[in-house]
Amino acid sequence: MNKTTKEIMGVLRGYATLKQDLDNIAMITSPSFDAVNVPCHANHSENKFVRHADISFQIHKIEQAIDELDSKERFIILKYIIDKEYTQKEMCQRYDVSKSGFNYQKNQALTNFAKNYGLNCRSDDTKKELVYN
Asked: Which pTM does this prediction carry?
């Protein structure tokens, strides 16, 4: 698997984790102010806010890249790669294609996701690497 392919799969596999992380971040409380001007980071509000904003941005960027795919590619990315709701055999039956035909469709979906997400990949190299994964 080449570097670009690993990066694409890493982004997609990390998507669910990011969504869970966003849910796990505690609600940001209002900072408290003392009469004395002493820097206090006891509630770590700023760090939580920055982390929340960073995760939200990453999720938005991934969802935007997925939304730009056609419906078949979006289904493959969401239901086969991210959620793992379907097996390769079930996807082949769903689209009435052979394993190699489905792998081609999956690779197209991954390549188009990478383009939408802003990953630089050479389409031919990525397709060769993705077929067997």
From this structure: 0.72
Contacts 24+ apart (CB under 8 A), 70-77: 72/105, 72/109, 73/105, 73/108, 73/109, 73/112, 73/113, 74/109, 76/105, 76/106, 76/109, 77/12, 77/109, 77/110, 77/113
Q: Over the stretch 58-68, which tens digit does the pLDDT of each residue have?
A: 889 999 999 99
Least Cα distance to 115 among 81, 58, 64 occurs for 64
In this predicted model, what pLDDT tens digit does every residue of 24-40 receive, in sequence order?
A: 765 555 555 555 555 55
Query: What is each CA distance from 9 to 20, 32, 101, 110, 119, in whole angstroms?
Result: 18, 42, 20, 8, 12
